[in-house]
Amino acid sequence: MAGKLVGRRILVTGAASGMGREIAGLFAQEGASLALLDRNEPGVAEVAGSLGAAGYGCDVADREQVNGVVAQAGEVLGGIDGLVNAAGILHITPIDDLDPQSWDRMLAVNLTGGFNVVKAALPFLRRADSATIVNIASVSALMPMAGTAGYSASKAGLAMFTKAIAFDLGPRIRANTICPGVIRTEMTRYLWENPEHSQHATDRVALKRLGEPGDVARAALFFSTEDSGFTTGTELPVDGGFSWR
Q1: Neighbours of 49 (CB within 10 A)
Q2: In the Cβ-directed half-sphere of 46, how many Cα atoms lie within 13 Å?
Q3: pLDDT tens-digit readout, 103-132
């Protein structure tokens, strides 16, 4: 299986931890040259150093910063022909208590952040013979749950954004969305460290377990290779059979 990404130059956001870190590790194993972005500058530097990748501290919600970092990464890599937008934040709060600043921040990171990175990378992607964009949304984009008004809206927006740009950018650039369910990351620690909540979450899915970051990383690999060469503008739930789509 090794070597599916040899010769590819791929930028991964949210790479200091969780799904982004796992994606970076798998892509490095498969031979990709990587530029890794994360707001956690020491964390992304540590991951990048362990993988022989370029690492950059970057808040994807900061458009000016994104433009500068992506331009630098493209020069270092000698081009960009793949993106994985894994940066994201989650605030679970009923709408009555949802702070407008929390709403704004979720949209800024989860939705506008994806736009910022795609837009900044587009000149590089257009110069590639074949390029891929993978946006990490959430099962909440498909099936909103209580207390996730801001999160669900931001992730549903990201999924529809991906569909729209798939039309704009084809045929040489493909764009797809992954919609993870409950994955064991720091962001969901509140859930899986609580035995009662964890059991409830596993009971709700067909595969009777929580997801692991590797489950999402393998889906991102599929969308970043010719294994998915006739697939664009779609979303793939990686949720153990929760959303049944």
Answers
A1: 10
A2: 8
A3: 999 999 999 999 999 999 999 999 999 999
